[in-house]
Design brief:
Elements lengths: L19 E5 L9 H15 L3 E5 L6 E4 L2 E7 L3 H11 L3 E4 L4 H13 L4 E3 L4 H9 L3 H13 L4 E3 L2 H9 L5 E3 L23 E5 L9 H4 L6 E5 L5 H7 L4 E2 L5 H10 L2 E4 L8 H8 L4 E3 L5 H5 L7 E3 L3 H8 L4 H8 L4 H11 L15
Parallel strand pairs: 1-2, 1-5, 5-6, 6-7, 7-8, 9-10, 9-12, 10-11, 12-13, 13-14
Antiparallel strand pairs: 3-4
Length: 362
């Protein structure tokens, strides 16, 4: 299939026509994070809808460990190899999911050929880098603005984040959302854990930007259970010997951890969405979090019914114990990967066209 030549006409991809959808992402298996799980779910759903979807990730390139986060591999000089792989796939649409070496190479490939693409804003890298290095976020946001401005649209999952990014000068912002595997994450997975109740659970990367100490420092009854892996795991295990750190869990084991907890505590102040919140709610487990972007957008008007948002995280966790678990499950059923994938597809643009939105309604 030949790649089409550029056209001045602007219209989104027609979701009723089978498409060859190519996603380029620096975050991909075997990494385990929200970006990877989102892209994996979306590509599966697109295939079920009759489209051919593929992800080009760093696993087939020469890589080096990311400084301060060796679990993440960064591709080395991927430009030529990436160009060959894109040409071999011959996409109808191109989506650049991340701003790392692969994302930058894909952006350059498209721009030098006059092709159009979309991007997505998944991660608050300026705040993450500031937490790890002390560098100010402003210059990094300026670089991110330039990166995303070259695309025909930047997909953002949270309305509060959209407004914030508009204030920071980002443009062409398009709404997206997330879903949850309602069959895997289910209240039926609940078991009687051999831990004193109530069980307060954290699930996610064990990294400084996740603000996990804000949870571990709380004075709470029962037990604290931490599921996940990351660069801070060994240090936190030494600092908090009474906390139950069980490492990463997948599939049925992860579903059982969610459903068997009494409250899911989400201490992050920087996540752009919080996929783990939906997985907890689908499992019937209420959530406790700070009133920040991510938790605020996931809970929406259901805050107070399926989760508690409070600047006092300990008070939020204790109050969440009183919430109705059946209501948590019912609320989560609004979020499906089919709906998220259809919206993703509707936001894409043909490789040779563009569709632009501004922030005039921010």
């Amino acid at each position: 299939m030949a790649i089409a030549s550029p056209s001045a006409e602007a219209r989104p991809a027609d979701p009723t026509v089978p498409h060859r959808v190519l996603i380029v992402s620096d975050a991909w298996a075997p990494q385990v994070n929200g970006v990877v799980r989102t892209l994996a779910a979306v590509t599966d759903e697109l295939a079920a809808l009759g489209h051919r979807a593929a992800v080009i990730g760093p696993e087939t390139f020469r890589t080096i460990p990311c400084p301060t986060y060796p679990e993440i591999r960064l591709s080395l000089f991927p430009r030529r190899a990436l160009a060959r792989r894109i040409a071999d796939f011959a996409p109808d649409t191109l989506h650049i999911a991340t701003e790392g070496p692969l994302g930058m190479a894909a952006r350059r490939w498209a721009l030098t050929r006059g092709f159009r693409f979309t991007t997505s804003f998944h991660t608050r890298f300026p705040e993450y880098i500031a937490a790890r290095t002390g560098l100010p976020p402003a210059p990094i946001y300026a670089w991110l603005r330039r990166f995303h401005a070259a695309g025909a649209g930047m997909l953002v999952a949270a309305e509060s984040l959209r407004k914030e990014l508009c204030r920071r000068g980002f443009a062409h912002i398009r709404p997206w959302t997330r879903g949850v595997d309602l069959a895997l994450f289910h209240p039926a997975a609940r078991t009687d854990r051999a831990l004193p109740r109530p069980v307060f659970l954290y699930v996610g990367r064990i990294a400084i930007e996740k603000n996990i100490a804000a949870f571990l420092d709380l004075s709470l009854p029962g037990s604290k259970l931490v599921v996940g892996d990351g660069p801070e795991l060994a240090s936190l295990r030494r600092t908090y010997p009474d906390v139950h750190f069980v490492g990463a869990r997948y599939g049925a084991a992860l579903a059982a951890a969610y459903a068997s907890a009494d409250v899911m505590v989400f201490p992050s102040r920087t996540d752009t969405f919080g996929l783990v919140l939906l997985e907890a709610l689908a499992s019937g487990t209420p959530v406790a979090a700070f009133p920040v972007s991510g938790p605020f957008d996931v809970l929406g008007s259901a805050a107070g019914e399926v989760g508690i948002l409070d600047a006092d995280l300990g008070r939020a966790a204790l109050t969440a114990l009183t919430l109705n678990r059946a209501a948590c499950r019912a609320y989560s059923e609004r979020f499906t990967w089919r709906r998220a994938s259809e919206l993703f597809l509707a936001n894409l643009v043909p490789l040779h066209e563009a569709s632009v939105r501004d922030c005039s309604k921010a």
